[in-house]
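Next comes a concrete protein, fold included:
___
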Amino acid sequence: MRHARNYLLLICLSTIGLISGCSHLGYYAQSIGGQISILSNRQPIDELLQSNDINTALKQKLALVLNMRDFATKKLGLPEDGSYRSYLDIGRPYVVWNIVAAPEFSLQLEEWCFLFAGCIRYRGYFAKEDVIEYAKAYQEKAYDVYLRGVEAYSTLGWFDDPLLNTVLHRDNAHLAGLIFHELAHQVVYVDNDSAFNESFAKTVELEGIRLWMADNGTEDAFNEYSKNASRRNDFIDLVKTTYDNLDQLYALEIPENEKRTKKRSIISEMKDAYHQLKQQWGDYNGYDKWFSTDINNAKIAAITTYADYVPAFTALFQQNNSDFSQFYIAAIALGNLPEKERDIKLENLGLSLNVEK
């Protein structure tokens, strides 16, 4: 019955797209078409585990995913629905490609507003060529543009999201974390506040991984995960430092050519600092891919969107006795506050965690 309601919703969205004007029609059409293709072709994991059509390695991975999915509900209090209980190989490495954009001398990301999801700081396409074409208008305006492939996304509980082949390359800890992250969006989602939503989900992901690893990971795997988590924090700190330096630069009343030169210098300093970090990490190269392509305002601000309020939500989690149910109630209450009041509380929560450290 739920599937029938979901398809009815897609039909309604199609109608809304038609009456919204030609400028939105193409975008909604590709979004709806892509989503219908995923919903139509997914297969229940329980059935696949009994099938002879998939190999043993994939069966083992899918069985582990069901374990992660059960853990998410029983231990983390995340929704019990059909999400991540089905599977689909879409035959490509990414499910969608996102555009993130910001002016040349600003870290304020462009926002796009959508039905149900509100305003968010990215715009996604199911075909890579479509996002490349759409990006041209921003590039012509001299915006900094960041195009990236996305391995998974949440439909916020409107549909039962399947596990996709795009995430199977992840190690077990990070695969579990992805499931926890995407399910967390069903618990708390504040319209028009990407930083809040992503930081909340990231906190659930990180705290969930720690618990899952304690129950299911070997000591060696847990130690490796801990090392990677520490490296991730170092990377984010580096990006935040660069963000702050650029933000200060853009506030100066100096000629644009001078800003442009100083901007290149700040980004160059960031790259140099990364090489020093790699030496501290024993030449770990997990972030080489991020540094190998153009670094600009959009790329830097996209990282901070996912991390801005993680310290604040970590503090909130600890204040609620590291109890997920209590934490969700507190996060929902926080999300219901007016934006300015919410931001102030988040800033104060983040400061309280730093003081405790």
About this structure: The chain has two domains: 2-171, 220-356. Confidence is low (pLDDT under 50) at residues 1-22.
